[in-house]
Amino acid sequence: MNRITKILLATGSIIAIAGGSLVVHAGGWDNFKLRYFHLTSHLNKQNQELNDIRKQGTKLEESSRITLSDLLNGGPPKDGIPSIDNPQFDTSQTTPFKGEETVIGVVINGEAKAYPFGIMNWHEIVNDTVGGKTITVTYCPLCDTIVVFERHQTTFGVSGKLYQSCLVMYDRADDTLYSQPWAMGIIGAKVDQHLDRLPAVKTTLAEWLREHPESEILSTNTGHIRDYQNYPYGSYYTDDRIIFPVRNQDRQSLPPKTIVSYIWESDDQTPRDRFSGESLHIAHQELEQIGEKTVTFNGREIRLVWDERMKTARFEEMNGRVIPSTTAFAFVYPAYFE
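The structure corresponding to this sequence follows.
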């Protein structure tokens, strides 16, 4: 073995040992990927989503609701996290998911479907049709936010960008970027336009099927090879770490990963970098303890109800109509609405 070969082997061993030490220190491979996401971002094309908007002759600064430097690389490129555009479904008898699996439940015109977190963690967006309506189901694993909306004649994909640690989607019709927690266009042709949101429920598969035994359940037959029984973010859901920079955390009194639910209604103002309108949030633990609460919201009375059957928060008008809401980690609310 010549001297150069020995040097290369020794160098490789040192790198391997150092890398292994970093993985152990991070608490495992999934935690390592999250903590050192900036390293993987160098392996991917990170400007495609903005370049696609520029190609349409759009000036980014003039068509942006946010400061462009706050739009961060999440690591994967545009469509690097693939949306599910041709979803297949199982029944309660054929699904591989157990009753304790967390799901997003949707009912439209009497048709019920459930979207397991085991799949949503890997794909984040499902373009589907439910009850005759074309819809998009979205979930951000970094923020625990769920937004379901009518997509009409287009589909949505994962841009690869993050804003305040949360999913930025894009409209495949014109490449407009949307902030998921606002359900609003933030850069592009449809800046400041809001999506037509629909009610969705975060619950377990068992609880969902008790109410909707005929519900279809999103299939793991997605056309992609993923371990849908494995959570890909290490200990992120249960620890207090926030990987990406998030503003206004000095205004937060709850532990950052406390589960809350919020509602929001925008007005016609378009201030830069912030929401304009009315919003309201409550921690699940608080609402579970009191059961129900009537509050004034945007000039009217509404009810906040702990849904004992679904084990989640529900917001409704006084006539019982459900108001679209989302769950979230507590750190999300001050970042987006205060």
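The first strand starts at residue 71 and ends at 73.
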